[in-house]
User: Which sequence fits this backbone?
């Protein structure tokens, strides 16, 4: 069985005004363009409570680094108390959303994703030696890439929300 190590796990929170549809599109396109992963939606849950909504969306996808390593990225959006509001922006009335938004990101390094070393106890032993002594630098390189990609995504998402809130 493949070995999965969570390398990155963090979240951002925002409270205020935002256009959720545009934010969703921005996040999807940024990950596709910059990290080169086309995310797929694994969960979409929406609950109505009076005039507010609660939305939970989960994205998940993987990209192969090599025949041995794979990068999995998981993104979760949690929106609470989302309401449609009208604001005056530059003399025009604009419909946007207000509420509490949380974006969680996990970056996972998957080793031996095909299970090539899982055929026997001896092969598992060889895998541990291989990872500990032969490819240590490569593992660190992939871990750094995962942390960098996930951290850049969260920074871009946060910057988008800050700019959107100042409009």
Assistant:
């Amino acid at each position: 069985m493949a070995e999965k190590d969570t390398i990155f796990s963090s979240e951002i929170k925002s409270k205020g005004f935002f256009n959720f549809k545009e934010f969703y599109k921005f996040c999807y396109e940024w990950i596709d363009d910059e990290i080169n992963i086309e995310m797929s939606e694994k969960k979409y849950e929406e609950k109505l409570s009076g005039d507010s909504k609660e939305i939970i969306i989960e994205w998940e996808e993987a990209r192969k680094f090599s025949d041995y390593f794979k990068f999995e990225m998981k993104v979760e959006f949690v929106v609470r108390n989302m309401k449609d509001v009208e604001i005056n922006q530059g003399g025009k009335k604009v419909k946007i959303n207000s509420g509490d938004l949380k974006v969680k990101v996990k970056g996972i390094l998957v080793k031996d994703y095909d299970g090539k070393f899982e055929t026997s106890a001896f092969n598992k032993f060889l895998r541990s030696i291989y990872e500990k002594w032969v490819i240590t630098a490569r593992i660190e390189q992939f871990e750094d890439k995962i942390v960098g990609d996930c951290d850049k995504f969260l920074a871009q998402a946060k910057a988008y929300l800050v700019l959107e809130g100042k409009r």
